[in-house]
Amino acid sequence: MGVFVSTDDPGPAGHEQVVFCQDRQSGLKAIIGIYSTALGPALGGTRFYPYASEEAALADVLDLSRGMAYKNALAGLDLGGGKAVIWGDPDQVKSEALLRAYGRFVQSLGGRYYTACDVGTYVADMDVIARETRYVTGRSVEHGGAGDSSVLTAWGVFQGMRAAAEHVWGSPSLRGRRVGVAGLGKVGRHLTGHLVDDGAEVVATDVDPRALEWARTNHPGVALVADTAALVAADIDVYAPCALGGALNDDTVPALRARVVAGAANNQLAHSGIEKLLADRGILYAPDYVVNAGGVIQVADEIEGFNFDRAKLRATRIFDTTRQILRLADEEGVPPAVAADRLAERRMADVGRLRAIHLG
Ligand SMILES: NC(=O)c1ccc[n+]([C@@H]2O[C@H](COP(=O)([O-])OP(=O)(O)OC[C@H]3O[C@@H](n4cnc5c(N)ncnc54)[C@H](O)[C@@H]3O)[C@@H](O)[C@H]2O)c1
After folding, report:
1. Contact 128, 57 (CB under 8 A)
2. What is the pTM of this model?
């Protein structure tokens, strides 16, 4: 059973549509948030998480779907922004029936929303959801999917970092620069490879001993430090947060010695005002959602029939987008995070407006 809440006027957070989905028998409780379809169908992952309340789940999906609209707009995709949350503990309630029930709700939207993986959902889950809906990306390679999205996420972060380096030092090369990578997970490892290939000196940290072992084995030249506090205080040129959100906060920013921040983690700014603190300290922040868009570019490519080379070419353009944002920030005298939002809003308005041209 599903309850559709659709508004002619934008809702409190400016969303086009919020869909509440419930299937009692399988235990499914989900909310799909469609922030904008101005540029095309909304794309964004499904987060499966044991929220404390329905209000908390709703707040998260509204926030995340809005963020996806901005990310997809600046990634140059013909896709709008959406996101979904399934409310529950995936370890307790995830089942074939629940995922397929969810897939039917996605299908019922007729292509207004494409789903993908997020926290608590995996490639194998997308394969199950795909048995009920065409509107799913992030499937396994065997099912025509794009596979592990961290490959192009890391490539895009590297491109964004190169653009930031060019802005600060006049050359995009990272040769001889000291880059601090916080988090040697899927993205951090690929990024380390690109940096080492480019001739950068990498300093890294991770809380997981297996990640440190990976670095010792694969990149013995990488210097390892105890924790992120040590990394932030280290003599580095670039800081790449590749672990959790909130990496840039009231403690880390005053201690940071790097001139550039460019990393994969989502929601790096702990609260609004941090972007100004970074700018006041002369630290150039390449906005997270701009430089980490390689993953969504990779999964979005599935909609056309996945082609790695084409997706990589698109992810490479993150260099140009980051450069454009940094120039706009200078011209308009605002932090890059503000310039990025302005550029995304401009594309949504300018291109979205064209829908009014009648096609018969
Ligand atoms: N994978 C993608 O395609 C993708 C796309 C966009 C954004 N991101 C974001 O990038 C970040 C990294 O993603 P991932 O796929 O590599 O995740 P991951 O889980 O593979 O890696 C995260 C790594 O960070 C480490 N870590 C956790 N807490 C830490 C801490 N306090 N200090 C140091 N290390 C710590 C973990 O041990 C792990 O090795 C996440 O914030 C994710 O949301 C990922």
Report:
1. no
2. 0.92
